Amino acid sequence: MTRVRILVVLALVVVAGGVVDRYVQRQSRWGPSVATAGMPEAAPGSALSSTWYCAGGSGKPGSPFLGGITVANPTDHDVEGTVTVVPDQGDAKTVPLTVKPSAATTLAFADVVPAAYVGALVDVDSGQVVVEHWVAGPAGTAVAPCASRASRQWFFAGGATARDAQLVLSLYNPFPEDAIVDLSFATNEGRAAPAAFQGIVVPAGRVVARDLGEHVRRRDIIATHVQSRAGRLVADQLLVRTGPGEAGVSVRLGAPAPALAWYFPDGYYTHGITERYTLFNPSDLEALVDLEVTLDEGAAEPFELTVPPHGVVTVTPSSEERLPKGVGRSAVVRVYNNVGVVAERSVTAVPPAPRAGRADVLGATRTARLWAFAYGAAGPTRDQWVIVHNPGVLATRVSFTALADGQPLALEGLQDVAIGPGQRRAFRVGEHVQRDSLSLVVRSTGDVVVQRSVFVVGGPGIADSLGIPLD
Amino acid sequence: MSTEPQAVAPPVVAVVVTRDAGPWLEEALAALGAQDYPNLSMLVVDDGGVEDPTARVAGVLPTAYVRRLPERRGFAAAANEVLHVVEGASHFLFCHDDVAPDGDAVRLLVEEAFRSNAGIVAPKLVDWAQPERLLQVGMSIDKSGAPALLVERGELDQEQHDAVRDVFVAPGGATLVRADLFATLGGFDEVMHLYGEDLDLSWRAQIAGARVVVAPGARVRHLEATSSGRRGAAPGERVDLEALRDEVRPLQLRHRLRAVLKNYSTFHLVRVLPQIALLAVGEFLYGLLTGRRGTSRDIVGAWRWNLSKQQRADIRQRRRAVKQVRAFPDSEVRRLQVRGSARMTAFVRGQLAADGRLRRRAPVLGAAPRLAAGAGTGDALRLPLAVMGVLAAVLLFGSRDLLGGRLSAVGQLAPFPEGPWPLLRDFFSGWRSYGLGSSSPAPPAFAFLGLAGTVLLGAMGVLQKLLVLGMVPLGLVGMFRLTKPLASRRARLVAVVVYAAVPLPYNDIARGHWRGLLLYGAFPWLLARLLRATGLEPFGDRSSWRDHVLPLGVLVAVVTAFVPSAPIVLVLTALAVVLGAALAGEARDSARMIGLSLGATGVAVVLLFPWSLDFALPGSEWAALTGVDAPAGRAFGLGALMRFETGPLGAPPLGWAFMVAATLPLVIGRSWRLQWAARSWVLALSFWGVAWAGGRDWIDVPLPANELLLVPAAVALAMSTALGMAAFEIDLPRYRFGWRQGVSLAAATAVFIGAVPVLLASVGGRWHQPRQDFDHLLSWMEEQREQGDFRVLWLGDPEAVPMAGWRLRDGVAYGASHGGAPTLADQWPAASSGAAGLLADAVELATAGETTKIGRLLAPTAVRYVVVPSKASPSRDRTRLLPPPPGLVDALDAQIDLRLVASDPSLRVYENAAWIPVRAALGEGAVAASRTEGVDELLEADLGGSTPVLERRRSDTRFEGEVPAGSEVYLSSAASGRWDLRVDGRSAPRRTAFGWANAYSVADGGPATLRYRTSPLRWAAIAIQVALWVYAVRALGRRRRDAGEVGPERSPVPAAEAVPA
After folding, report:
1. What is the rounded CA–CA span in Å between residue B311 and residue B316?
2. Inter-chain contact B852–A50, Cβ cutoff 8 Å?
3. How far apart are CA A451 and CA A433, in angstroms?
4. Chain A residues with CB inside 8 Å of B896's CB?
5. Hey, which residues does B936 pair with through a beta bridge?
6. Contact by Cβ (8 Å): B727, B512
7. How confident is the model over A101-118, as pLDDT tens digits?
8. What span, in angstroms and rounded, lies between the C-alpha atoms of B560 and B515?
9. What single-letter DSSP state applies at residue B156?
10. Complex ipTM tops 0.85
11. How many angstroms away from the CA of B994 is the closest CA of chain A?
12. pLDDT by residue (tens digit) across A6-36?
């Protein structure tokens, strides 16, 4: 009896242990293997300091990329720091920076260093500060968040080096050691890695800009992979197009890593507006992707896509029957086989569309409850919209606050606005407040993704960009 | 009247030396009287005995001449009397008073002397009571004079040794010596009054050109009255063999050395003496390490005695005498010496033949020595020797690269310092430079290692190999001892084989788990003590568990000094065995183990004072005791743990083989075999379970590392397999032939299969240990010290960080080394991180995204480099990936004052652009910042302009150099008033800098010395610690003497040493 008891007890323990072990292992096996791509994020409120890196822009008058930065301080205390503007040629220059509570400050590069290409290092003594950089030239206006961290690699899904296009890659190395980078491309004509774009040295604390069209010519679609052999850096792409139907300027911060999900709160086309989703798979494996769309009216089947290794796939909504014209939508790009991709949305608008210009926006890789925008304006010359997408399964309520020269201003009519699960809503900010400088904070009771679009009234210029999470 | 000449036998004088002989004297004399040799005279020399033997001699041999010496002068001097009182003899037959020759023995000896033209002839010595058992048939020695028996004592005499042959030594007892030779040689060396005189005489005889032969046809019974303790003891009196050996050993050792010093020619002496000295050192150390202090003492005594002034003069004189009679060179004389070391052979055989020796001993007078095991001893030894030989060969073969080269500094295998002094200095100074420095007590391991290094004359490399590779054989010997109560040599060997073949120690070597190896070597010894306390068959003894507290406590203290979490493993073991007993029965008896383990832990805590006290003080961190938990994401699966696959060895399916073998006792065992098998399995399952659950953060208590938790499981598995062998021998024959025999066969096969991976791994010669290490990879940092002394901050997976760090968060360790890769001193963290917590705070700020200027935060801590390893060794070696937590590298990458340094892919090295040297004259901005404690000030200050000072490093606590006038000299070490900066002989005023470090205002510059003044409290603590150890060791010694333990394993005299008197 004793022997039987011993054998039974020991066997039970071993078998039970084995079963639990297998169960636990299976659970962990399904964990994500691709790191979440890092969007720019504001440092936490407890931060002792925070640094922002703005890689692309020009300080040279007449450049299509003439630009600057806007620093917003949604906190209740003064923020002090410095802005170091780094040119591609010549010496960097550091200027002091003070931003009052609930206010924003704008700095034009041309006022500091009038160089053809510049980058900027914004170093402040607080967290919760957000920084965006913008370009404004004859081809229009564009905005993008600056980077809150550097990376060893950067990805851009869209871009073009067609006859009428100038695509510039701006590389900024804010660190004390030199960086050496290699560029490779996935285009509509296959992969390319020109020798001229290998081993590019980005000296410590310098900006290096390269016109990609010089060596990767005449491509309608060109996805870029920036890989650092040594050092870390920040990469922006600046695109200007002058051809009919495509004219406009855009500035984009790259994605530091592929991701498994990308959120696009806005989507819309009508006569004169061309829209395109571009998916870039920089890995050696095929990516199985769904492009899920949620229409403001009706429903649409998701697009089941296969993105080849080192390949690019595009979806043009106007060519798809399931996406009706004139109906707004949100979209989510979701990977199903753990192979990360980079997703981007491009918009070009020409008459008869109510606005003109182009915008290229990377999707959001995360949701948040608190978003901020440093750049903005609403008034007779600027038409600003904010689009909020609630991808969750519960309804949420959002409120808008403008940073009005030292006072947080809760926008009337934009408080506690409900957004249903999976739904999105677009808000025309100018209907609630009119300001030349309009930094915004959007608060939500649930996780949402927020995009801001600023249209130049009566001229070319679409400044689309996602917000910067504050939480 | 016949004219034919009579054949006259040469006159032989039998010289019987006696002293207070027991009842055997008459029988011995009668045997001499009964000789058939026609011309034998008797001379009985009483060596100063209390009793006058004349009457007793006369009663047996009325014609014998009795000569009494007025005082005891020893056998040699007494025998030499024959030179003064006898003339005209052809031969002398020197006899003890406890030998009884057969009736024809003398005649045969004399005949052989003439036939062989031998100078000395020895008979075959057999047991007194059992004459069919051999004692000696001549004897040999090795180069050191250590005796080497030519027959196995107790061997059955079947005339297998009856050929006449040359031997090196005619053993005492009964020896026929040609009279003229004896006179020429000057008789026995009277200084060797007892033991060794026979060796010396035979040696000198051969030098003089005489042959020494043994004539086995002549048989002499020998009582060995002196060596068996009969002489002078009352009948029935219990003999204290331990004490007897203590008396005999010094004489044997010193006389053997004397013979060597006297009889070798100068050339050979120069060659041989260093070898003998080396062996003596080894034996001395072994004696110290194994508690045979008497042996060690006597070895030293033998050398001191022979090298004393008086003996040196006497030896010189006798060497001259030897030289005068020398007829043969040493090369000729030594042809009969055995090769190699008879001591070493005797040692090995002595250890393994312990049981046999125990059985042969007869502790009670009146009972004849039991020689029953005699005939089987050779066979019985053959198997253990063969198994041990194979294991030794595999271990040596598998470790050949590591033995011949250097151990890679992987994991905890940091290089040892070049000498023992740095460790001893660290131990005594009272200042630990670990982390950012602290006045916490240094680990006692420093003292142990320093002392061991001193004993090894500074050979720290050898010490490291002993403490790494030597742990495997130590564990195997421990396993052999642990399983001794199983009373089955085969079972014990199975235990040793399984313990040797589990992948655990080899994975530890591969991964650099030094603490795991140390526990692997020590745990069987700990468990043996623990099991004795249960009182359960067959392990327990009759003593109270309290009797084991001190011995086990001392052992635990030694192990804990190196493996701080060892007591936790010990207590868990006790709990697991009790749990097993709940399943198998007799839980109450097993519960004693819990008390014993707690008691022993208490003793260890006391002995390790004040280091142990540090862990109980507020602020102490568990991670310093148990190590930092590995990240849950790379926890081992249950299968890997059960196969001990913590490294390259143990993969399925072969890794499961021992599990199969260990189930045998559960199936066929009965009685205590079954019960202990159940307890063993519960022990193993408990530790596997704890390691498994702990790896998944399911146990909310910091646990020792896997390599430690798996050691008891490995011992339990080996024990269970051994119990299977015992059950095979004892229980299986009681079953009918059937499936159980098949299961037994499968188990046996499984043992062989299970050993295959280790055999295959041995081919590589280094047990998969990487060839490259970070020490080599970061050697460039040494050159950077020219710009000022600095620290290196290590961050990452606890297994990848090559030092014992503190816990930053789950699965992340941190620590700081000085000027490059960590050293041995970095393997024991202080109980509290203290000021080093600043390092963690800075990293936490960076990873939380709260700063991008970690370099500035780290600047006052003199951290110049931040290193994040992603493997335990450089990338060329195929070791597994141990990536740092995802946010860590991103956070460091985001820091604008960290410069990424090109390095091996396995390391991410950042240079801090804002660093301040450990000893620096601060720049203006830094001086202002140093007067504050705030981080904000640090972030805003200009920290540039600091220059290194005091760059001549005498030790970790003393620095010298010039300091500039009007400067603020900064010392990046935790604030302490015992740091004293003297400039031109005057103390500079000290203040606390940055809220935690030291700064000195230097008005007038000049030559300066910065040193740490050891606190008197530290000296007092050391004195207390030493006193506690002395007390404990003395108490242990007393206990052992009181207990009268004469177990063979405690015998200071190896088997071959027991040369009968």
Report:
1. 8
2. yes
3. 18
4. 51, 121, 123, 174-176
5. none
6. no
7. 999 999 999 999 999 999
8. 10
9. B
10. no
11. 17
12. 889 999 999 998 888 887 754 433 333 333 4
